[in-house]
Each structure stands twice: as C-alpha cells, then as structure tokens.
Amino acid sequence: MRRTAGALIVAAALTPALLLATPAVAAGPASSAPAVTAAAVTDGTPVDEMSEDDLRVAIARILADPDSGRGVKREANKALDGTVEDMRAFLKTGYRLAQAEDDRVAIVRILADPDSGRGVKREANKALDANTPEALRAFLETGYRLAQAEDDRVAIARILADPTISDALRAAAEEAIDGTPEELRYFLEVGRYEVDG
Known about the structure:
197 residues; mainly alpha; 2 domains; 73% helix
C-alpha cells in the first residue's frame, strides 16, 4: 500500500502543473509533439515482465512528460489507482488510445485557429477522417509542419504578387519561398518586417 501512496503523491504533485498543458503542436507551426510510446518509458522491458514498481515508474514517467495531455493523464491515473493488470493494460493499449484522444483535441484546436490555412485544414481533416492513432500522430509530427509550409509558400507568393513591394522585400521573399518550413515561417513572422522595417 505504501508504494501506491508514494506513486499517488508523486502524481498528485505533478498533476496540477501538467493538467493545463496542451500538446506542443498546438503552440505553433514550427513545434512538434514528440511521440512517446509505452516502449520508450519501459526501457525495453516487456510490459508483461515488469514488476508492479516498474509499472508504476513507467506510468509516472508518462505523467511527468509535459507533452502528456488530459486524456493520457486521466487514463494513467486510473491505471495507477487500479490493479497491476490495469497498469499493464494501460501501457499496452490504453496509453496509445488516450494519446489519440489528446491528438484529436490538438488537431481540433489547430482547425479552430483562424490563422490555419487551407493546406493545414485539408491535412488536419484527412487525419481526423482516417481516425487512427497513427494518422493523428503522423499529422501532428510531420503533416502539420508540411501543410503549414504549403500555406506559408502561398502567403509568400501573395506578397510577391503585390506590385508595390520594395525591391528588398521582393528579393527576400524570392529567397524565402524556396526555403525550409522553418525559414518560410521565419520570413512571414519576422524576416519581412526586418527588410521593410
């Protein structure tokens, strides 16, 4: 019983700070949420071979991860309150399903953002329509960044289509349009203002 109390104290101490955390992807187009799998927190030990203490440590790591969303935290805490088999079930399948729930929320937030462009909305809707944990995660890890880059290229092309822009801004936009997703975003958020600033 003492182990359970200790784990719950750690979880209770971490939960208030983490409950309001949202997946890193929702913060902006240049960020990405790392994919943490049950295998990553179990140090390669098969879940069925883990002791009760090892299971609790693995779940505590998930709870301590700042990218864990509300669904993951809720299910992790349920598992900690349950039996050893509940903890194993969480690490085997519950974590993946709870992460998919949190990923869905992150994608809906991206869709609700008025600054999300057509490419982002198209790819976000594809991920939601596929409705698999893998499709949701893939969008947040790579699809969002690439779709944002597509939208950023369109925004830069619109700048280039303006006949009234300065030569310096035109040169900077022409250079940026062939850049990486991060360079595109930087140009739109900062670079274009530095040129004409």
